[in-house]
Amino acid sequence: MSPFSKYVTDINRRTFLRQSLSSLGAVALGDLLAPDSFGSVSTEGLHHPAKVKRIIHLCMAGGPSHLETFDYKPVLAAQHGQAMPESVTAGEQIAQLQGAELKVKGPAFKFSKYGKSGMEISDRFPQIATLADEIAVVRSMYTEQINHDPAHTFMNTGSIIPGRPSMGAWTMYGLGSLSSDLPGYVVLTSQGGGQAQPISARQWHNGFLPSKHQGVELQSKGDPVYYVGNPDGISRESQGDLVETINGLNNHLASNRHDPEIATRIAQYELAYRMQASVPELADFSNEPQTILDMYGCEPGDGSYASNCLMARRLAERGVRFIQLYHRGWDHHGGLKRNFETVSDMVDKPTASLIKDLKMRGMLDDTLIIWGGEFGRTPMSQGAGGDGRDHHIKGFSIFLAGGGIKGGTTYGSTDDFGYNAEENPTAVHDLHATMLHLLGIDHKRLTYKFQGRDFRLTDVHGNLIKGILA
Amino acid sequence: MRHLYLLLTASCLTILGYFELKAADPGIALDEIETVDFNRHIRPILSNNCFFCHGPDEAKREGDLRLDIREDAIEAFAFVPGDTEDGELLHRIFSDDPDEVMPEPGSNKSLTETEKQLLKRWIAEGAEYESHWSYTPVEKPAYKSIDDIVNNELKQRGLSFSKEASKETLIRRVYLDLIGLPPSPKEVDVFLKDRSSKAYEKLVERLLASKHYGEKMAIPWLDAVRYADTVGYHGDQERDATPYRDYVIESFNNNKPYDQFTIEQIAGDLLPNPTTKQLVASSYNRINQLSREGGIQDKEYVKKYQAERVRTTATTFLGSTLACAECHDHKFDPFTTKDFYSMAAFFADILEKGAYTGDGAYQEPIEPYLTDSMQHEGWFGPELAVPNHVFNENAEFIRAAIRKQEANLAKGSIGARLEFENWLAMQSELADRNIPSYSEIEYTTEHFDKTTAANIVLPDNLLSLPDIAALHFEARVAGGGGRGSLGLEVSYKIDDEVNKRAYFFGDNFETELDAKTDAPWRIQVTPLLYKGVWHPIQLSRDTLNLPKGAILVSLLPLKGNGAGFRNFKLRTLRNGSQHAALSDAGTKLLAQVLTGNASKRGREKLQEEFFIYHAQSFSNQRSEIDALKQELHGDRYTPLTISATPREVKVLPRGNWMDESGETVLPASPGFLPNSIESSSNRRLNRLDLAHWIVDQQNPLTARTFVNRIWAMYFGTPLSSASEDLGLQGEYPPYPELLDWIAADFMNSGWDIKHVVKTIITSRTYKQSTDAPDALLELDPYNRLLARQSPRRLPAEVIRDNALKIGGLLNTKMGGKSTRPYQPAGYYRNLNFPKREYVVDTDANQFRRGIYMHWQRTFLHPMLSAFDASSRDECTVKRDLSNTPLQALNLLNDPTQVEAAKGLAEQLMTEPTDEARIVKAYKRALSRSPSPEEMQFLKDFLERERVRFQQESNQANDFLLIGLSRFDSEYDPIELASLASLSRAVLNLHETITRY
């Protein structure tokens, strides 16, 4: 192989040079790196020093009720069962309650105060509550889309038009990965505790950004990454020999052809082969002590949210930049009490354990955790016995934790009915701007030209949520 | 200076090479630019830096100054032509005062020194404006050919064409580019031996005539028109549109002129007496994403669909970013918000719902529009049933196959003859007992409107089971909310005890119909029911499978959501069998035979009919024939565009669908473009007018947009690098004359697509080698000067086709329903409403071309996704060409690839030596012989694999079991497995997935 290797190096250098020249204006590191699509390192931040290296987005798909989690409303309890004041709902967009009689529904669960700040948290989150001084709750989120599919699209891409890049892809485009043998943007899904609304791969798509920035979905069963397992009957040794042979021949080709893609191809085969080892190692929980498994409350690889939380920590340890966990179980149009109990049991402990585990390992400081759904739920009841809530977009809660976040903060508020964000209304674009800011990126300067326009994750919007920053 | 220009064009990568050469090369100083050219030099500066605040968007305009119109700029004293002392523009851009300087310090924009000097010189030279290149009429530049234009430019730069690629390279290139398949070694040999000067042209002619040409051409077209098998939003349910895909392929193959092609898609339904194919073409309007998510607002989704159609139509046909004008006037191009909604108004007549749930509503009742028996209301609006033979390329071939197979059955067999004699005896006995052929069951239409179905009690005198051949009826699902399932509960008596069984039609009965029956036995009969279609269903005695001696008591239709049954009848065995009734002629012959009046020939004819349609002995052969008949006469469905009373279209302030305050608009084309059209008080324009306006020769965008994308198919980069935007922010093409020359030639030829393709493919420019001296590579890294060809990775679909062809597995059957090749298990686990299991094709459909693969928008097949295919949520006119480890994993481990490798290995088994085997593998995959180094490399690897498989021979067997195809059992599994390893290496080569 050696006669050709010099040539390849030469090509590498040239490719790199070209790509860096061409990216000068955009200055997006994720795009500068060549030829290996996963392996770039930036810990410094793109425009200013970064507070965090990675994001873990715990997406509570279906839309958790803010009124049963972080936004306690005594008025709702007092007026439970009464007609919802028309002054609040007149002219507002309503989903499944269109045309229905609108009645107030009081909180289904008790709230208590936790931590030094006396943060109000539902009794359904006893473990998360112990972290009240670590987390910042934003109670004044609002979004623009009232149905699941477009609301997820908006939460991920800042646009309601399908086909725009997701925030993970933007992060990859801006910063690249920290891992040399795993994808930089990884997605896991789990379900339980209510009807499982569908989730589309669109939510982790690269949109118009180069496709190397798209999220890779990790399976809990079968090959963790599609096609990462050797064909039946093929040993690792044989596969390794195959890859070496392919690369040897590709090297030979590089000596005859002017095609810079050959060098990249060679690097990708090497990386693929490394992934064939690193991915199974990643998915193998056998070196996790029982105490850790108990702490999260999972059987390794059982596909549960708890198992995915543990996986998130393992991914974080291995340099994965953007980790998204979807838990599909929060769409409680009916049977809210029972379903909420189920899903909060599934989510509370693992979420808290993930934060504690990261903290224990000194990694919480450079990780940003975002917990929340695509929207909230109505203060009005829905369905048989009034034991449900419809989709709601004018005010809902999320929480953040980790590097750069001021723990013990309760930021913003909704009105007495938990309907409209009142104090410090916070847009999805603001969340995106803040997330990028903590990664060391100025959201106004991370752009990509498409359709003749410099596009941004935050479009023409976005303000930092300064009140939650340390 | 280089860097200055780099910043200017920073994110538009492909422009870089050009500007380096043209203006900003360190060797070319500013004063070497002879005249400052507005389109080339000035407009990009103004557009990038100034138009945002001083451009077409009135709402954003600052200081009442607009710089995109010369007169306005002069009037506002922005500049005085020829005078560099006066005028605000120069004063501001050269100012050091942060309060004065332009662009504003906070705008993230700034001018380089070169840009400032260019503006100054331009004003000194008179500040002439030019119309934006793509908005001026297409005129054919005075050149003889593509090569003439390129050669002229190259000569000016002291460059020349690269040498022509070798014949081996050329034939593989032209095969992959034109039909998306590699040439066979034999085809390569024929071409190499053909020394005639016309050899290449003949080859191109032959490939243009190949039916596979249309399949290749359809790939980018289907991306643009966002064709897929599912609705995209939320539950991403399936909805058939495959006839539309076949229409596209056929149109390219028949070289349908592009104007006609455009008209049929946008307005085929509005043509006088539209043909089935023209109706299918107009599915273009309705293959957008749709939603039936619970709780969505009908009106909101009507607006979403409306906006999406404008985006797709503007991008596909006009290369325009009209989409930007949904919420505000366009920032750079002269499109107004009103233009956006006026364009939307063309599509307002389309009969549709916003929400395909119980809550959605058509703008007026659909029933009066469904006048044709082939049209019905489906789960996602109006649908057209399209008999398979309409687009079947092989209709005659299939008919011949059916005739041949039936003729074979007609010959009979010993067993079948015996059956015939027994059957005659039975018929005689049935006749003696006066058993009728049919027994009608009273069941009228009033029954199927009821939500709860009543038992159909069968009359006492009804026939006993041994005489029953089949239960016939028609079933239809309707209604809004649920999915398509129906059932029939059958009660029967045996030994005075009543038992039940239930038979289900559709695919979702558990959830919908569970409560409606307590029958313990459930049998699913047909997998899919189309909403609104009366499906004829036959439950034969074998399917009913009731115990011996059972007597039917009653039938209970099980229905969800207003579904219906009709035309129940029991057919007896008299004059037929459980499979079918005898033909009229057969019935007469049978009567003659039973009464002893038949001629010898008559008896033979009856016997033949029996063999073909009734004999149990031939049931396997009969199901093969039935499948062929289905392929011809079965229906597929496509979304139907029905023109109804148009909905009112209003300008939506900031794009907000809830804001009703905007003005109502009527259909009109964007006003600034030539020959614009608008509705008048006595005539509302329609989609047909729009289509005619698009293909008007005066429309400056249509031909340029299409040929720009055609060029990209053969060179990688379009002539203007942003296919989706020929507007002001798009790229001023490095070869504007070339784009215009081809566009003019295209229109002059009568929009002849094959003519354009042939003109490009037979040009010297196209035939150049991809190899070039380092100096040229450094000078022009993105090959915008066209002094060589560019290597290009194959598109996702073609990567698949190529491997299957090399492996000898490719099934070249065209069209039909979508196919489902291997896909990792559980890939659809995040889908719901309904939940879905992907069922892999286990027949020859497994080996079909990529273009026919099932296209699930929310979870595109991971192989397609890894190789940058578009999920087709939205119009896409450019695919990325990434190079990732996921691609390597796919080529290494996807069963499709492994099976192709096995297929190639089998081809190699017959060769006498390892050398011959490796040569053959290379010829099949790369159309060339290996070099000595490559030969040695692969020989060594093959030998190592042999040793490994010998040591672990069961591994060879495991390996060879992958996939559906089974190898010849004569072959030594160790040898075959070793050659399959060798083949994997060959299929994974960069060269194999690249066209040079």
What's the short story on this structure?
The complex is a heterodimer of chains A (470) and B (996). Chain A is of the alpha/beta class.
Give a verbal description of the structure.
The complex is a heterodimer of chains A (470) and B (996). By secondary structure, chain A is of the alpha/beta class. Chain A has one domain: Alkaline Phosphatase, subunit A (3-Layer(aba) Sandwich), CATH 3.40.720. Chain A has 13 helices and 17 strands. Chain A has helices at 2-22, 29-32, 74-78, 86-89, 126-129, 148-157, 167-175, 236-256, 261-283, 290-296, 305-317, 336-360, 428-438; strands at 54-61, 111-114, 119-122, 135-142, 185-191, 216-217, 322-328, 367-372, 376-381, 389-392, 396-402, 409-411, 413-414, 421-423, 426-427, 448-450, 453-455. In chain A, the strands form five sheets. In chain A, strands 1, 4, 5, 6, 7, 8, 11, 12 and 15 form a nine-stranded mixed β-sheet that branches. In chain A, helix 1 (2-22) packs across helix 8 (236-256) and helix 8 (236-256) runs antiparallel to helix 9 (261-283). Chain A is globular and about 80 Å long. The model of chain A is unreliable at 1-42 (pLDDT under 50). With 996 residues, chain B is an alpha+beta fold. Among the domains of chain B are: 2-130, no CATH class; 257-366 and 642-699, no CATH class; 406-620, no CATH class; 893-995, no CATH class. Chain B is 41% helix and 9% strand. Chain B has 38 helices and 16 strands. In chain B, strands 4-10-6-7-8 form a five-stranded mixed β-sheet. A four-stranded antiparallel β-sheet of chain B has the order 3-11-5-9. In chain B, strand 1 and strand 2 form a beta hairpin. The longest helix of chain B has 21 residues, at 298-318. Chain B is globular and about 115 Å long. The two termini of chain B are 34 Å apart. The chains are: A alpha/beta (470), B alpha+beta (996). Chains A and B meet through helix 1, helix 6, helix 8, helix 9 and strand 16 of A and helix 1, helix 33, helix 36, helix 37 and helix 38 of B.
